[in-house]
Amino acid sequence: MDVILKSYDPLNNEKLGEVHVSSPDEIKNIVTQAYKASSNWYGLGLDGRLAFIEKAWSGAEPHIQELAQLMSREMGKDIQRAGGETSGTVHGGPYIAGEAKKALCPRSAGRGTTIEYRPLGVAAVISPWNYPLAMANNLIVPALMAGNTVVFKPSEETPLVADLFVEILNRVLPPNVLQIIHGCGEQGKILVESQVNLIAFTGSQAVGKEIMARASKDLKRLIMELGGNDPMIVLEDADINAAARFAVASAFENAGQMCISTERIYVDEKIADHFESEVTKIASQYRTGPWNMPGVNIGPIVNKAQHEKVVQHIKDAEIKGANILLGGSDQVLPYIQPTVITGMTTDMIMENDETFGPVVAISRFKTIDEAVSRANNSCYGLGAVIFGKKAAKKTATRMEAGMVGINQGVGGGGDAPWVGAKQSGFGFHGSLDGHRQFAQVRVISG
Ligand code: NAD
Question: 228 CB under 6 A from ligand 1?
């Protein structure tokens, strides 16, 4: 029986299209085909693979607008953001591939020893819906450059944009080097349990743990970029306006549906009144609305379940005594109106878990030690941000996070890795070290 996955516009639930859900036999067959294609793909060498990637990704350039519109309609982000993500994906592919080539060239370790980077075999790339092309691209490109073939499973929320992107790339790539399967968690599980050698995953912490448990049977290689609950500390001598602008922009980016979105803010009580009123003033200028309406900067929440989760977090904070300066739990689908909460306490869900909605949640501190201790009291460790002057650098060194921003957001520049600490990640991508994780390291002596 043909099982269908339908894709809906989160704005009005209009059906946008559908894809065929891959059956267990089809997934097995696709992985087998990927294996068969792998030796020829590896045989092209780094330069041959780079040339294919450059040609395939540049073939997507004329489709940037089409892809961006589909992305906007499938997951709700406004067209400027979708355009930026799509263009970054299409132009970033060859850039990542070029960097990966540098990382994967054989190199001498001295004393007649050479280090080589060989393919692992078939890589499963499993991705989320919030940045449906960028997140997948960050894993697909280095996996291919390392000589692996790829079986890609996009999120069930964004199958159409993923399908179109892969179809465009496959006009150039050799057959079965990059294949796509569709479905939900069930198809992800089947892929993880298949004969793939590497699982490169971006998604939630809970699913990351499930994947790790399943992959352990064959000790499959894992690269996992997982959820976060990023703290921000605002010190006494911070530029209050700059801190407030950053706090709101980061908390509301992509309707708050961003892994490194600022989820918890700890502000020195000496400047808290001023900071909170600046935040509220800035937040009240944000507008919810559809992807193609000018001036909109918060789109619809991706689906009803996610909307309910955000409302539940806000309601929990209200019940436990938070002050609502803007918005609140009285929200109507598909939007979450910009919300600002103060008086966040350690027992609230939003202090402890990822909310993933346009909510600024603030708590006051008396000492920097207290702020650092609350910021670090989390199983997550993706990003952390410090605003301030005198003690900012020292405070930054105390943060238990993979990426720390001082008076700016995280994720720096150049070819820095994208990396989470604690339970926000396992392995990482980007940078020479990151690209090498997609390969089997081999040491040849003599
Ligand atoms: P999710 O974990 O629910 O799903 C991600 C993907 O995994 C989807 O394709 C899904 O179908 C698949 N999947 C679900 N169950 C599976 C299973 N048991 N085995 C294999 N695959 C399975 O995440 P989501 O809701 O799509 O995305 C949001 C989450 O992703 C947030 O937690 C966010 O912080 C995180 N994220 C992290 C980063 C990062 O770089 N660290 C970037 C973007 C998103």
Answer: yes
